[in-house]
Design brief:
Layout: E1 5-13, H1 20-34, E2 38-44, H2 51-61, E3 65-69, H3 76-86, E4 89-96, H4 106-114, E5 120-124, H5 132-150, E6 162-165, H6 166-170, H7 182-188, E7 194-198, H8 214-232, H9 236-267, H10 279-306
Parallel strand pairs: 1-2, 1-4, 2-3, 5-7
Antiparallel strand pairs: 4-6, 5-6
Length: about 325
């Protein structure tokens, strides 16, 4: 594929009018010094301030700036999805608009992709200037969980500063709030050369953070969903059927045990409790019913999967 630029810098922004002129000047300084051909794709995620007006004014002064504006706030994943679709650079870099990501890191990340052959280079903010209680500690727990589930050894999965080979962003679909897990999406798409680079974290200079503590809860739920879809998305019966059979067998064994115990005690003239008076009997019935329902759910999911347009979608590395 022929690329028209060396770099595409995709920036998702929401109410960042104060930081945009300084950010653009900083990027322009670095790009000019390094001699890169580049484009800056600014995606305004439904800002309610003058961010879009600022983007248009900056674009009039710098032809390298391109803009996309949403009518309302859809979220960072939607912004990155459209930014990736518009990117024409050999390497695509994502960064936040709040000046906490330094453009000075871009040349080395570009080199790691183009010369060392990495698919993704993720930033790692080793020294952070966020609040330790509300951001640092939850972030460490979140990243530890993400490493265990995804198998990707990144210390800062959610860092906004990342560099990608263009082919990577064109072969993944970022939706919902899955922007946190782009390396995992890329790994599942067959792009496994993923590394990280320690980057400088800047203190927020303007405005306030747009993210609260709820992002960690939502992030964990998204991670579980993504793991399930990547593992069982094309073979749901392997999960629902197997789980259903286990529950059905467990319930059946418990039922047989309760009935057999009652019959043995009755045949020996011993005191016995009626089967319907034993809580274990009802737990067994619940297990049998749930097992049967899970098994049927597996069949339904298989029918949905078989009719999906993505059922035979595979990324081919090379063909001749």
């Amino acid at each position: 594929m022929e690329y028209t630029k060396d770099l595409s810098i995709v920036i998702s922004l929401f109410n960042e009018e104060e930081s945009l002129p300084e950010l653009v000047r900083w990027i322009e300084t670095v790009m000019t010094r390094e001699g890169y051909s580049y484009e800056v794709i600014m995606v305004d995620d439904g800002s309610t301030d003058s961010s879009w007006k600022t983007v248009r004014e900056l674009a009039e002064k710098n032809s390298c700036i391109r803009g996309i504006s949403f009518r309302r706030n859809y979220g960072k994943s939607a912004a990155l999805y459209h930014g990736f679709a518009a990117a024409n650079g050999r390497v695509v870099v994502t960064m936040d608009a709040d000046l906490q990501d330094s453009p000075e890191e871009i040349p080395e990340m570009y080199r790691m992709v183009t010369e060392e052959g990495y698919d993704i280079v993720s930033g790692w903010k080793k020294k952070r200037f966020d609040n330790k209680l509300t951001k640092n500690l939850p972030s460490k727990l979140y990243n530890w969980t993400a490493r265990k589930i995804t198998g990707i050894r990144l210390h800062d999965m959610n860092c906004g500063l990342k560099a990608y080979r263009n082919e990577v962003v064109k072969n993944i679909e970022v939706y919902g709030e899955m922007h946190r897990y782009i390396p995992y999406l890329a790994k599942n798409a067959g792009f496994g050369r993923i590394t990280e680079k320690p980057v400088q974290h800047q203190k927020r200079k303007y405005g306030v953070s747009k993210f609260g503590l709820e992002r960690f809860v939502n992030g964990f739920l998204d991670l579980i969903s993504l793991w399930f879809l990547s593992t069982f998305g094309k073979k749901p019966m392997h999960f629902f059927g197997f789980t259903g059979i286990l529950m059905f067998l467990a319930g059946g064994i418990m039922t047989i045990w309760v009935i057999a115990e009652k019959l043995i005690q009755q045949s020996h003239g011993l005191d016995f409790r009626p089967v319907t008076d034993q809580p274990l009997f009802y737990l067994a019935l619940v297990a049998v019913l749930l097992g049967f329902q899970l098994f049927l759910s597996g069949f339904i999911c298989e029918m949905v999967s078989r009719n999906s347009s993505e059922r035979n979608h595979y990324n081919i590395r090379e063909e001749f």
